[in-house]
Amino acid sequence: MRFAGVTSLLALASSALAQIYVPGTVPENKLEPLQHRLSYAGSTGMYVSWNTYAEVENPTVYYGENVWDLSSTATGISITYESSLTWSNHVKVTGLKPGTTYHYIVSHTNCYNCSELAPYTFTTARPAGDHTPYSAAVVIDMGVMGPYGESVESDYPIITANDSNTMQSLARYVDGYDFLWHPGDIAYADSWLREQIDGYLNVSLEDSYKIYNFLLNQYYDELQPFTAYKPYMVLPGNHESNCDEGGTKDGNITYDLSLCVEGQRNFTGYINHFRMPSEESGGVGNFWYSFDHGMVHYVSINTETDLGNGLIGEDDVNGPEDMDSGPFGSYPNEQIDWLEKDLASVDRKKTPWVIVSGHRPWYAAANNVSNTICWNCKLAFEPLLLKYNVDMVFYGHIHMYERNAPIANGVPDPNELNNPSAPWYILNGLGGHYHGTSQWVEPFPSYLRYIQNTTYGWSKITIHNCTHLTHEFIASSNGSVIDSATLFKDRQCGASVGPTNSSGNFSGNGSVPWTDVNAAGAVQLSSALMIAMAVVAAMSLL
Ligand SMILES: *[C@@H]1O[C@H](CO)[C@@H](O)[C@H](O)[C@H]1NC(C)=O
Ligand SMILES: *[C@@H]1O[C@H](CO)[C@@H](O)[C@H](O)[C@H]1NC(C)=O
Ligand SMILES: *[C@@H]1O[C@H](CO)[C@@H](O)[C@H](O)[C@H]1NC(C)=O
Ligand SMILES: *[C@@H]1O[C@H](CO)[C@@H](O)[C@H](O)[C@H]1NC(C)=O
Ligand SMILES: *[C@@H]1O[C@H](CO)[C@@H](O)[C@H](O)[C@H]1NC(C)=O
Ligand SMILES: *[C@@H]1O[C@H](CO)[C@@H](O)[C@H](O)[C@H]1NC(C)=O
Ligand SMILES: *[C@@H]1O[C@H](CO)[C@@H](O)[C@H](O)[C@H]1NC(C)=O
Ligand SMILES: *[C@@H]1O[C@H](CO)[C@@H](O)[C@H](O)[C@H]1NC(C)=O
Ligand SMILES: *[C@@H]1O[C@H](CO)[C@@H](O)[C@H](O)[C@H]1NC(C)=O
Ligand SMILES: *[C@@H]1O[C@H](CO)[C@@H](O)[C@H](O)[C@H]1NC(C)=O
Ligand SMILES: *[C@@H]1O[C@H](CO)[C@@H](O)[C@H](O)[C@H]1NC(C)=O
Ligand SMILES: CC(=O)N[C@H]1CO[C@H](CO)[C@@H](O)[C@@H]1O
Ligand SMILES: [Fe+2]
């Protein structure tokens, strides 16, 4: 596979506009790869996935460290499920160097030999023990953007004209984070009925499965500008379970699961669309798993099902709501047993930081009802998070942003952020979606330190070294930092393993520049995509 090499970025931008794929449309060539996305598979592997409107025979990733030599290949599978409109292609690339950037393309890429087409890149995780500083992004509760989801015209507008939405912000700053963690509520395709009832969409009920699928694909298409370059690590949220949004009400009618066709229940789309490193970490599917990147051990937990032995019974059998989903473990306590084993095996000399995320919160300034505050999640997880000195917890589900203190059993740690022993809790459910933001409830809990529900945004964490970690809330509208706080942990840092920058063209010390990256080809392409997205408004739905 040969490429003409790096081309004029301006030429790329202008030619890209002419041939650009418009999110949500079915391409003429049904094998055309769409929705490129990545996921860490240890520090020497990468899952590369993409979707097509037809089955791909022998789906292949062509890759290499040099853009002009993509002669290494790896192959995988092409899968679909009942009522899906597309095939998910999953390839695990192995035998890579850690902390190293590779160029790649996949089977049936539109223009294999075309100088305008810069191949995508991925960068493998730095091994545990590499103490190079870096940043990562976290976004929660993010749905379809644009005319079928969050927009100025939606009935619950939060963004105003000329604001960037969260996808645009994540694309703009794609060079500012190593990977993106999305702990649940991904796409909000199950809002199709709500949008229909509100008169925002105009579709017929018989086509519901197509609408649901259309919204899913719309969302996955919109991710491409950043998920083609940065691992997108996902976790299940309630909106991934079924097509009915937990029972959508229209006056006296409540639509329930009977509305959902085969393939739109029990997390089926979510299971098929993503590949998370559970094999690498002893977890289960895309439901619970962990991964290392440099100084941090990241743990993804499932708050939707499989909450464990002690919580079996009544409506807890399938998690906090009856979503008629799961279990996914082979026995009731599998997730909790796994979590304990995983946390117990962390080598804090290598990964001094341990960060856990799940979808549903248990500390929040919200109504004390079980589908908002997940008390069962607290019962299931908090004891282990305390026992194993987890540093930080992310969750969302409620559509607001709360920076809380480090908390143990409801009590703020007296040390606050200056060497606390309890985990620091960040709730950020402000990715943005059709239905706007949530209301908070006063009086505020004693652990609350900052709260807002008026602007969408994402979290950026910067791991400076083994003692300092900064969390920032980035406003999607304009990239400004609305809230920032640094956690200090008093501990001895072991020696950094490495080097990683000698082998992998990893320039500098790994600090991520926080700049407007308009000069990067990837971002030119994505701006063009974003412009193209506006065009979709004028097109018919199906
Ligand atoms: C690819 O590009 C090279 C150099 O421009 C050219 O010689 C070759 O014929 C092209 N191959 C195809 C299949 O277009
Ligand atoms: C958006 O930008 C346009 C063009 O610059 C301007 O006319 C308009 O007033 C802006 N709208 C808002 C809400 O700021
Ligand atoms: C909804 O679509 C139908 C059929 O396409 C059309 O007849 C009707 O006018 C539309 N309603 C609205 C409110 O746009
Ligand atoms: C909903 O139910 C109430 C009480 O049964 C009834 O008064 C009302 O007319 C119903 N509304 C509709 C739209 O059917
Ligand atoms: C959901 O799927 C899992 C397997 O993926 C299965 O074990 C479980 O029984 C299913 N649950 C329901 C409610 O269908
Ligand atoms: C919230 O509700 C749970 C029961 O669902 C109860 O155990 C708990 O004490 C309540 N907490 C507060 C702060 O009201
Ligand atoms: C934010 O929460 C407050 C307090 O509940 C509420 O009054 C306000 O309407 C909320 N704002 C938005 C935009 O939802
Ligand atoms: C760790 O990073 C923080 C923040 O950048 C810095 O103030 C501190 O000096 C660093 N500590 C060490 C040991 O390098
Ligand atoms: C950026 O957006 C935030 C949130 O909407 C706002 O508070 C802030 O004033 C804006 N900053 C600038 C420079 O426009
Ligand atoms: C890593 O890169 C920095 C900056 O380019 C350089 O100073 C350092 O020597 C490199 N380390 C190794 C081990 O190559
Ligand atoms: C890390 O490298 C960047 C550029 O690659 C440089 O701007 C920054 O000063 C370096 N930081 C340290 C602590 O060496
Ligand atoms: C900046 C840098 O180190 N670039 C190097 C990347 O790797 C290629 C080949 O491995 C070198 O030729 C570059 O000098
Ligand atoms: Fe949720």
From TrEMBL:
Its EC number is 3.1.3.2. CDD domains: FN3, MPP_PAPs. InterPro entries: Calcineurin-like_PHP, FN3_dom, Metallo-depent_PP-like, MPP_PAP, PAPs_C, PAPs_N, Purple_acid_Pase-like_N. Residues 1-18 form the signal peptide. GO terms for molecular function: acid phosphatase activity; metal ion binding. The keyword Glycoprotein applies. It catalyses: a phosphate monoester + H2O = an alcohol + phosphate. Keywords: Glycoprotein, Hydrolase, Signal. The keyword Signal applies. It comes from the Eukaryota. It is an enzyme of class 3 (hydrolase). Residues 32-128 form the Fibronectin type-III domain. Belongs to the metallophosphoesterase superfamily. Purple acid phosphatase family. This is Purple acid phosphatase.
